[in-house]
Amino acid sequence: MTDSSCISIGLLLFPALTQLDLTGPYEVFARAPNTKVHLIWKNSEPVISDRGMAILPTVTFDTCPKLDVICIPGGPGQIDLMEDEETLSFIRHHSAQSKLVTSVCTGALILGAAGLLQGYKATTHWASLDQLALLGAEPVNARVVRDRNRITGAGVTSGIDFALSVVAAIYGDNVAQNIQLNMEYDPEPPFTSGSPRTAAADLLKQVKDQLAPLIEKRRLATVRAAANKMG
Amino acid sequence: MTDSSCISIGLLLFPALTQLDLTGPYEVFARAPNTKVHLIWKNSEPVISDRGMAILPTVTFDTCPKLDVICIPGGPGQIDLMEDEETLSFIRHHSAQSKLVTSVCTGALILGAAGLLQGYKATTHWASLDQLALLGAEPVNARVVRDRNRITGAGVTSGIDFALSVVAAIYGDNVAQNIQLNMEYDPEPPFTSGSPRTAAADLLKQVKDQLAPLIEKRRLATVRAAANKMG
């Protein structure tokens, strides 16, 4: 902790997060040299992902050290955090001291609710991208978006691309390329349905219909968070 | 458990595994309809990954139900399992009843040590691919390899491609495509260094040199496991 040359990266580990939003970047960050990765939550109990995986925090809000990089993943549990002042205050406090303030997937909406994306270009999961504007951010339809010291990734699996970009920004290209080769990150998706841009129209409609109730619930939370910020 | 229409998928969660080998496929499998995903280890204590993430098993060797799909991830902890008869017996027992016997990364070497890849085409992490031959498998330099009911993925991040292929095989293409769009799996690696095929020669040498001690330790374990199988 007192080794000032060690880079400290903290990922928020919250109930009902989408675990791959966190585990993808963790795998990349934890391979960087002279780096300590923290999994942060309010207490030390196992945190259960939206699909039932239990992961243990390594630090709490009270014991979390100063972070060089703070990263907020997403997932349905994000909705409850949009008005959770304890979490938003924690994020604000650490972001003010961090070199990079980052998110994956709908974690960007939490950053927005904390008032940290006002006037910044940002991205999030494609199905919620428009909601960033309600929080004063400028939505950008891209996989990874950097604007000054904010770096945001798109949906779920973008976390791997995002984290390699963050590592390149901090440690240089060679370190990121080394990690990419070690992780054999040479993706070959079996289908081209990974984006609204490439998915068939009927598949896109199917997924939009399935997601509609969640997206509406999220939108209402975003609207309330935007009102709170103005208040 | 008694719902015979529910598909049961079990992932081995072992000490010093590479967590993304497991968490990538978990994220895909857990999104499939009418599916229960199990994280299996000898006991219920948290299991620590090679880079310090603690994940909780959901079932033990004793309580694990019959599996439709068994999946063995990889990572340095794989080396100790190559001669761990308790684990190899568990894998053999469940594989005999499973519809699909699968692995990600160096999990293929564990399947091989259990005698389950003899005469099968298979793949694993690029840096250990040749070791499959010592266990009687036919190494194939591909991201995902299917031979009869064995499906093996290459290194770490291949687990996502692998899992989408498994889901397509079980549930059909539409389900896999739906999950791919939900996970926004439209990868854009920031570099082209994810494979020995595409990485620069000096980078490849750098990574090979770094990995050499681990690969040699692994090779000795593979040689011993091959001898045990013959014995």
UniProtKB/TrEMBL annotation, chains A, B:
SUPFAM superfamilies named in the record: Class I glutamine amidotransferase-like
Pfam family, one: DJ-1_PfpI
Boundaries of every DJ-1/PfpI domain copy: 9-168
CDD domains cross-referenced by the UniProt entry: GATase1_PfpI_2 (cd03139)
Source species, domain of life: Bacteria
Protein name (database record): DJ-1/PfpI family protein
Naturally occurring in which organism (per UniProt): Yersinia alsatica
